[in-house]
Design brief:
Two copies of one chain form a homodimer. Helices cover about 30% and strands about 25% of the residues of chain A. The first copy, chain A, is an alpha/beta fold and about 575 residues long. In chain A, the strands form eight sheets. In chain A, strands 3-2-1-7-18 form a five-stranded parallel beta sheet. In chain A, strands 9-16-10-11-12 form a five-stranded parallel beta sheet. Chain A has a five-stranded antiparallel beta sheet with strand order 21-22-25-24-23, with helices on both faces. Chains A and B meet through helix 4, helix 9, strand 21, strand 22 and helix 11 of A and helix 3, helix 8, strand 21, strand 22 and helix 10 of B. Chains A, B: It is an enzyme of class 1 (oxidoreductase). Chains A, B: Its cofactor is FAD.
Chain lengths: ~575, ~575
């Protein structure tokens, strides 16, 4: 099969090498050529922050196989039988003549390559915000190996240094941790009211608090106006919140798909200038496929077109494209926007729709904030894990999960991703047979507990109030009785302003301390709000009528707390 | 609702307290009484091995809420409004009169309790093998808090000590680790040819090897004949493999459901003497429910009745029973036999059907052994994770996953449990949007890589050979060419007996070292068999006809290896 089929792949970083290798495995007689603009092949771009921090010691590890073989053109030729033209830029596509024109960047030589099937794996480029000063020395992006080397060289040169990260997305957060690791004082500047917009506001606030606890200054709702320099070197960043003196700036405001080639060739483009593809990863020209950070994707829940460039998706799409080119049927169904990142001691993970996304998509949304230890609570290695579940009220289906904290959030997000893909309801999730032993999870896994709390809410057993709603009520001076049912010791450590303490075990006997008026607005809570829920039931049975349980308890309160 | 409904719950360890608390939450006017034979309520039996080892320091932690409140009768009364009769044994049920007769163990007083609904949460008891000597001093089971205290007291008394564990199941393995942790020399004796029969043979062998590397002697296919004592104290264990001198014996040969009450009351029993229940957790008497370690369950894949007592299942069933008693509709669908345990540095986890179970259930089975790092391989914290995937050839559906190794197997097993529950195929699993970042997973998650290898197999792209099949061929003296394509350095460290080494990168140039006869049986492999797969393709293209890839490579070879 594929006798002599000529396949040209443009791009040899993530999706490209995957497509090429897979095609040649299935059609050993095919002639597969990869054209790569850069000097580096098949490298793990996602690993760059860890190379900058020194966690990954050698650049070569990022472009090696798991057993340490460097994936260079010799490797591709000898092992994969794929011909790689490195430092060669594809400049145009002649669709009718089925030719790709390219130029060797080192020699300037022009070449042309015939193709039967063409694959565009052109990736993305960092977006440079349209402000003054982005070309000054020590202003970086972090996209390729050269960027990482530049940052490392700068760090090696200057001992004490301040750094400003422009943009609070995934890459911004990862490089922040890397720079703190190397001893930098970091300020993060984000235009939106929160960092990590893949999370809902209150979850992002908890991540910001964790970053600030680690010495990072996080400025949200802050617009960068200009980067100042002196003698061509960056000196300060001017923002809507004032001037920040700095030795270094890293711009991490997202990427844009590289689609000039596709556009010039007349292929249809999609959301955000991406290349439009069908589920076979075929562009509007049936002989041209595309995969990876340059293509449009579909959200599996909303069916909306979107753009979420990730290495994991690129690899899957590469495989699908290769299968179809090799004459097999395969399709890439779409994405859930699953993502995870390490933020100091926190794992920050999410899948599906956030509350905001779900509401925007027209769902009647219910949410749950559920913090609890990620392992049996009596195990010393148990760590706090804070979950936010988003469900569709009507169907009871899970729409999204956000997980933050030192606990194993990635594990719950992966189980949830499978559950969402299958359209599972809360009832189904609450009976999932997840594996249990004390060193790995609580007897009721965190995901199952959160699903049960959601069922309680959907069935009307408990009325919750989100931290933000409560804060709005507090700020507007509404008459509220805030009842904290934790122990006295816990209450004396840290508390929410204005709360009154009656430990749960004493509540039945101390009901006289609750305002007599049975119509009083009461908000009950504890550390994680399980005791709060019990307290609510006790008050309800004692006749009070307006009781709400604070979602997520004191642990997930994203506003100021009092430390007496 | 439930005005004055009288509910009696027999058993207050796992399912019992769950049922009681949940009912009272939903029906505050109900009268709920728990009758518990033992002194300890609502304790985490699964935590006992960690209490024995000292990882959990205080017994009270096992019976506390996550915030450290001990769940004693006072707690149940004040917080939950549940009346608990501890050290009270239910002796009979009068179904027509709707009464439970019980006896206070301390006083001998007899009491009777009226019920509208009765819940049997009577749990299970350790099985004592019918051999001589099990009543000797220092012969233990590990089921309740008293057992753990007995073992701890014995350990505190004697400094140097040998221990024999009879039974290589989950509890046997967990207590082995605990005892090694306290300084014991442990011998495990298992009657079957492998420990952990929830795993397939070759996976269990890898766990045995890990235990032996930690100093545990594992004797499989070994029958215990008698426990010898001197002056009433255990001295040795006589087995079909000889006599083992020992200071202590722990019998961990499984548990049996406590169903005498149910049987005497004429309720229908199921598999292994369990109480038969429907999906509402209702016994054959509609006013009597049962949940936890005493009931029959259904396997979600085969629909066969089975008995897999676990704390996680007990909690879920308790909730379902409570909902139905409270007049709500709820059902417990069944189990996948998901389980996990910590075995020294290994996480050992599984869900669904093993190869053997799947074959016995009549499936046309295909399997994959897939070892790889559990995080991006360039991250220093990446650890080896060895997966075994079991699929149905006909439908391509995932039937089971086994995960062992230092890597995060529980995470992949939980995602697989959700996928199996949803009936997902390999194609669906290979496109799951699992979350990715280098500190948490490889770009292609281990589960996805394994699913892709399975797709290659199911589509006929590669022919695998299991370690056991290969060993049989080797032992029977078949003419084989064993080609190890790892690097020379790897080959010199450790190898499979009889293998020839040609590193993958040189294979195209060194084909003359492969036997000329194109019909030679060739088995190719590397460390994890990805390079082995590439090598197979190279040989196939060069004309060899009988090439198989060794599943799991050198890493998952469960037989003797040579260390030159």
């Amino acid at each position: 099969m594929g006798k002599g089929m000529k396949v040209v792949v443009i791009g040899a970083v993530a999706a490209g090498p995957k497509v090429a290798s897979k095609i040649i495995r299935q059609m050993p007689d095919a002639e597969v050529t990869c054209v790569e603009k850069g000097r580096f092949l098949s490298y793990a771009g996602c690993g760059l922050p860890y190379y900058v921090s020194g966690v990954v010691e050698d650049q070569a590890e990022l472009m090696s196989t798991p057993v340490g073989v460097v994936r260079d053109p010799v490797f591709f030729r000898n092992v994969k039988n794929v011909h790689v033209l490195e430092q060669t830029e594809a400049v145009s596509i002649d669709r009718s003549g089925k030719k790709v024109y390219a130029k060797d960047i080192r020699t300037g030589n022009e070449i042309s390559l015939d193709y039967d099937k063409l694959v565009l794996a052109t990736g993305a480029s960092p977006f440079i915000p349209p402000i003054e000063g982005t070309k000054l020395k020590n202003v970086f992006t972090l996209h390729g190996v050269d960027d990482a080397e530049g940052i490392k060289a700068m760090l090696a040169e200057h001992k004490a240094r301040d750094a400003v990260i422009i943009g609070g997305g995934l890459i911004g957060v990862e490089i922040t941790e890397s720079l703190v690791h190397t001893g930098c004082r970091v300020t993060m500047v984000e235009m939106m009211p929160q960092i990590l917009t893949m999370l809902d506001w209150e979850m992002a606030k908890l991540v910001e608090q964790h970053m600030e606890a680690k010495g990072v200054k996080v400025l949200t709702s802050t617009k960068v106006e200009k980067v100042d320099g002196k003698s061509g070197v960056v000196e300060a960043v001017r923002t809507s919140n004032g001037k920040i003196c700095t030795d270094m700036v890293i711009m991490a405001v997202g990427v844009r798909p590289n689609t000039k080639l596709a556009k010039d060739a007349g292929l249809e483009l999609g959301v955000g200038g991406t290349i439009k593809v069908n589920q076979k990863m075929q562009t509007t020209d049936p002989d041209i496929y595309a995969a990876g950070d340059c293509v449009e994707m579909e959200n599996l829940i909303t069916k909306d077109k979107c753009y979420v460039p990730l290495g994991s998706t690129a690899n899957k799409q590469g495989r699908v494209a290769a299968n179809n080119i090799s004459g097999r049927k395969d399709s890439f169904p779409g994405i859930l926007g699953s993502a995870v990142c390490k933020v100091f001691d926190f794992c920050v993970a999410r899948t599906g729709l956030s509350e905001e996304q779900a509401a925007n998509a027209g769902f009647d949304v219910e949410t749950v904030l559920s913090p609890s230890p990620d392992k049996a609570h009596f195990m010393p290695e148990a760590k706090m894990l804070m979950l936010k579940l988003v469900a569709d009220k009507k169907s009871g289906r899970l729409l999204g999960l956000q997980a933050i904290g030192p606990g194993a959030g990635d594990k719950r997000v992966d189980a949830a991703a499978a559950a969402i893909s299958a359209g599972m309801t809360m009832e189904q999730i609450s009976n999932l047979d997840l594996c249990y032993a004390p060193p790995f999870s609580p007897a009721m896994d965190n995901l199952i507990t959160a699903a049960n709390v959601m069922r309680n809410k959907l069935e009307g057993d408990m009325e919750g109030i989100s931290p933000r709603e409560l804060k709005d009520k507090m700020d507007s001076g509404e008459d509220l009785f805030l009842l904290d049912v934790r122990s006295e010791g816990e209450f004396n450590e840290v508390r929410i302003p204005g709360a009154v303490n009656i430990p749960l075990g004493m509540l039945r006997k101390r009901l006289d301390e609750v305002p007599e008026d049975k119509n009083t607005q009461i908000v009950v809570f504890c550390k994680i709000s399980l005791r709060g829920y019990e307290a609510g039931l006790i008050l309800e049975n004692a006749g009070w009528k307006d009781i709400k349980v604070l979602d997520g308890g004191v642990v997930m309160w994203p506003f100021e707390k009092i430390t007496p």
